[in-house]
C-alpha cells in the first residue's frame, strides 16, 4: 500500500497512544482504498458523509459501469435521509422496482461493511457511527432517487428543492469527482457512453487498473464489489435464478 511513512504494523495502530497516531491510522485506512491523495478533501467533509465519499470514490474508480446518474442518486438519497421521519420512509411509494437499483444498494451496503472492518483494523481513525448504513443509506429512498435520476430529473428535484441540500450535494459530488480524476476516472452520464470502458482514460506508468474481468486495480479479486452490477460479467439471468425465492417474501 502507498502509505506515507510506510505500512504500520497492527501493534502500532492498535496500542500506540503517541501524539499523531490518529493521523497514521487515517493514512492506513485511506491507503487500503488507495485514496491517500484525497486525504485533505475527505477530511474536510462533514460527518457522516466522509465514509460515504470514501466508498463512492473507491467504487467509481473500480467499477467502470457506474455513471453520473448513479452518483447523483447515491448522494441525493444520503442528503435527503437526514432528518426524514421514519414514517415518511415507510410510506414512500415507488413507481416500479428496478433490478439494477436493488443491486447498487446492496453493493453500497457491502462496501460500508468493508469500511467498518478496515476502520476497525486501522485502530478507528473515524467514528464507527459514520459507517452505519442508517445514517447514510435507505434502500427505498435510494430506489426513488435512482428512478428519478434515470428519468433525467434535475439535481434540484433530487434534493427536493432544498437549497442547503443542494449546496452540500455539489460539495460532495466535487470531492468524489476530483478524487476519481486523480485516478484517471472521469464520471460521465450514461447518455455519453460510446465505448466498452466509459469514463476511463488510459493509465500511464506501472499502476494497474480494474478491467472488464472484474478484478481490482491491484489485480486481486474483491468479492464484495465484483458481484454487483458494475461487473460486466454480471448476467441478467441471475435475477431469474433468485427472483422466485429471494424476493417472494
Automatic annotation (TrEMBL):
GO cellular component terms listed in the entry, alphabetical order = nucleus
InterPro entries in UniProt: Coact_PPARg (IPR026784)
Q: GO BP, one example?
A: peroxisome proliferator activated receptor signaling pathway
Residue ranges annotated as compositionally biased, kind Polar residues, are 206-215
Region listing for Disordered, in residue ranges: 192-249
What name has this protein been given in UniProt?
Constitutive coactivator of peroxisome proliferator-activated receptor gamma
- List the top taxonomic levels of the source: Eukaryota, Metazoa, Chordata, Craniata, Vertebrata
